[in-house]
Specification:
By secondary structure, this protein is an alpha+beta fold. It has a single domain, classed as GMP Synthetase, Chain A, domain 3 (2-Layer Sandwich), CATH 3.30.300.90. The protein has 3 helices and 3 strands; from the N terminus they run αββαβα. A hairpin with a 6-residue loop joins strand 1 and strand 2. It is globular and about 35 Å long.
């Protein structure tokens, strides 16, 4: 089990413009759905975007604080187009 603010701060420490939203998928706080909106993803294919986040989270994944993650990564322009940012 991991504190969501810890995960959010960890991501933001690597992607300073990131907007991070975390949801608990199972009620156990170790299966997370994470939405990350950042212009750091600009020009990168989806797998590279997800690898960036997995590299950031590898410390938490290695200690079993996080068992599974579902990632959604978007640039700010794509998030605006989907109505997720104003």
């Amino acid at each position: 089990m991991v504190e969501f603010t810890t995960v959010e701060n960890l991501i933001k420490s690597h992607l300073d413009d990131a907007i991070v939203k975390i949801h608990d998928l199972t009620g156990t706080a170790d299966h997370l759905s994470i939405l990350i909106i950042s212009d750091a993803f600009q020009g990168k294919i989806l797998i590279d975007q997800h690898q960036m986040i997995m590299d950031i989270l590898k410390e938490k994944l290695g200690t079993n604080e996080i068992h599974a993650v579902q990632l959604k990564t978007l640039t700010k322009d794509k998030a605006r187009a989907k109505g997720l940012l104003s």
